[in-house]
Write the structure tokens for this entry.
Amino acid sequence: MTLPILFFYFIAALLVLASLVVVFKRNVVHNAIALVAALFLIAILFFTLHAPMVGVLQVLVYAGAIMVLFLFVIMFLNPTALERPRALGWGFGTVLASLLAGLLMAVMNHSETPADPLVATEIFGSPETLAKSLFTEFVLPFEIASVLLLVAIVGAVVLAKREH
Amino acid sequence: MIVDFTIIAIKAFLVVFMVLNLAGILGWVERKGSALIQDRIGANRASIFGFAGMGLVNTLIADPLKFLTKEDFIPPAGDKFLHTLAPCMALFPALVTFAVIPFGDVLQWGDRLINLQVANINIGILYVFAMASLGVYGIVIGAWASNNKFSLLGGVRGSAQMISYEVAMGLSVVGILMVYGTLELQEIARGQGMLLREFLPESWGGARAAIGWLPAWGVFLQPVAFLLFFTAAVAETKRVPFDLPEGESEIVAGYHVEYSGGKFLMFFAGEFAEIVTAAGLVTTLFFGGWQVPYLLSDGFHFPWGSVLLMPHWLIVLMQVGAFTLKVLFFCWLQILLRWSVPRFRYDQVMRLGWKMLLPLALLNVLITALIIIAVE
């Protein structure tokens, strides 16, 4: 085994551990922090695949912005402990999870495994390529998404103003 | 392979070593500087065999010893694990951000070219913002894990403040990215080695004659962006005038009110490391990074035509020295600011961030784009 593969398994093991903590811990703040750790570890995996752009955006958007807002809300509401999910919830969750696992297995069995882990080329992950395709080929969906975000912001301001 | 790895390890060690030690020394500069500004004598009590060294002994030996030997108190109702994790998360982003800041050009050693920068990734500036966005966890988690109302208030204030100013900070840099056309900090520093006359179009004869001799530093091309970025960077370090998360007169010490001993030392060192990192960023983006005006890769080329050739090692030494001097200057400027201006009220901080810095940054992006189109 080469060093990069060993490193991959090390990060992957940590990632699985962090994800298990997200699911099984009873303290909401602990869950949120474990989710931050998991997102950070995924970003490291992107870095090892030579896609620093995706990795950094992963940290910037998910770990650095969205999860901070999650924590913000959790700290304000301060729930002491989660209620234990009922049997129905467990059953439903188990069925859904096994379905997903089966689907993943099927996909993985059918796709060819490359000899080396897939590596993004210099051009593929670069900001230039991303910007070019965003502003030429996909400019309409890009603009629609930004208008959607603008609507959400305006809506939030309107809702917040109504209380006064 | 082994040699390459060793070189990277040495570079990484050197940068962390310098940042941490500079952070320690800044603790002394802060006390001595505040004493100077307030017409006092300042830290001068601790001494070893009668040697006080202007208070240096105090800061470098007595302070850490005192911090490390104090009781490490964890509030009984707090969260033990997160209370310990928080200082680490506060210190971590401040230390790793410096990895993408170049402290010199390429050093030629034998037939080996060493890039004087720890990590050369093609999205350097995004990495900086990603790490800065992680900085908020240290204070939020520390505040929550202390189980103290004052700390929780400080943590909530801190997270709101840091998110607000990250937006203005990110947008203020966009102008710089447009001017130099890259996200790589080393390339931005190289771009600032040109003269202003190479940036101005032929038709602007008068402007070229008047200011063409200036180096093409970010501060000359993007003066508004510099003011916005520097303000936002000071706000990110959470120091006066933006020290609302600590707010001694209202919420005791905010997010670190329940911290003592070594863990408090980590928060403290993290704050000073953030000052160093902010100074490094301002230097790299707006003040030429390691560039010495008119110094090219073979010596000085003055605008009036004379040339002064120099050996390679001397040029590299001068560049690293220039970078260090600039960083030290901006560290000092931040400390001067902290002891000269009164603090904001919380609503003023928010208003400044969202209603003044953010629109100004957007306007700066628009005007920069218009000028670039006009020039091209």
